[in-house]
Write a structure and sequence with these properties.
alpha/beta, seven-stranded mixed barrel, 6 helices, 10 strands, 18% helix, 21% strand
């Protein structure tokens, strides 16, 4: 199933995203519309951004998480690291509870702090913490999940918190659409879908490799390989650092020029 939607610039501190190295903001001219590639995996066939009266609405920048893929091109990106396994219906309040939404991601220190609270809302049945107490980063770069990951509220802080924690990808059986869309629009984390229920076959701490070009996940701990659904045209948007960074890179809007 597909869905068409528009993302609007607002005064929200998490409305847009760009790379951490770009501490500038950009405003779209009134009524300018940007068409992005068709996105697959339960997301938008026509992703567009419409901005009206840019003088009244500013786009606030979010630094992208420090993901380090093996190649600059998303078609050859490979992720390798330990995984953290969760079950079904992990909602955004479990990913980042509402009490931490006062943290402003455009502030570098608060961005890092936001990452330290990622998945802190999980129930006590999860005896292993995603981010250890008194740590700012997780040691699990890949999250393995069940059905309907990211359900609940529409808070963009959810993928931002995961990216800020150091995670680079989620592999789930399925996603809440708005979480998938927010992951793409912020460029914080790759939301990948599995062909089968991988969360029942992986354990927290297993060492994995994700090969985007082959849409393949390898569990080096168990020796098993799994087919993933292709990320499609969402990949270049995430790799660029989100929708605005992709638009600049593609020449859809002017590139940012550092101010003196």
């Amino acid at each position: 199933m597909t869905m068409a939607a528009s993302l609007y610039l607002s005064q929200s501190p998490i409305a847009t995203a760009t790379r951490r190295s770009s501490p500038f903001i950009s405003l779209l001219p009134p009524s300018q519309s940007i068409k992005f590639p068709s996105l697959h995996c339960h997301t938008l066939k026509d992703l567009s951004i419409t901005a009206s009266h840019a003088s009244q609405r500013a786009a606030t920048i979010i630094p992208r998480a420090a993901a380090t893929p093996s190649s600059a091109a998303s078609s050859t990106t490979v992720f390798h690291g330990s995984c953290y396994v969760v079950g079904d219906n992990i909602d955004t309040d479990q990913i980042i509870p509402a009490e931490y939404l006062t943290l402003v991601p455009s502030n570098p220190s608060e961005y890092e702090k936001l990452g330290s609270y990622a998945l802190i809302g999980l129930p006590s049945s999860y005896s292993t913490r995603f981010v250890e107490p008194n740590e700012m980063k997780t040691k699990y770069s890949i999250i393995i999940a069940g059905d309907n990951f990211g359900c609940g509220s529409s808070r963009e802080h959810a993928p931002v918190a995961l990216g800020a924690s150091g995670a680079v990808a989620v592999v789930a059986e399925s996603y809440a659409r708005i979480f998938f869309r927010n992951s793409v629009s912020t460029g914080e984390i790759y939301p990948l879908e599995s062909e089968i229920r991988i969360c029942d076959e992986c354990k927290t701490g297993d060492v994995l490799t994700i090969e985007l070009a082959e849409s393949r996940l390898i569990n080096h701990t168990t020796g098993k390989e799994y087919k993933l659904k292709p990320i499609g045209d969402a990949g270049p948007v995430i790799e660029a650092g989100g929708i605005f960074a992709y638009a600049r890179k593609s020449g859809m809007i002017p590139s940012l020029t550092p101010s003196s």
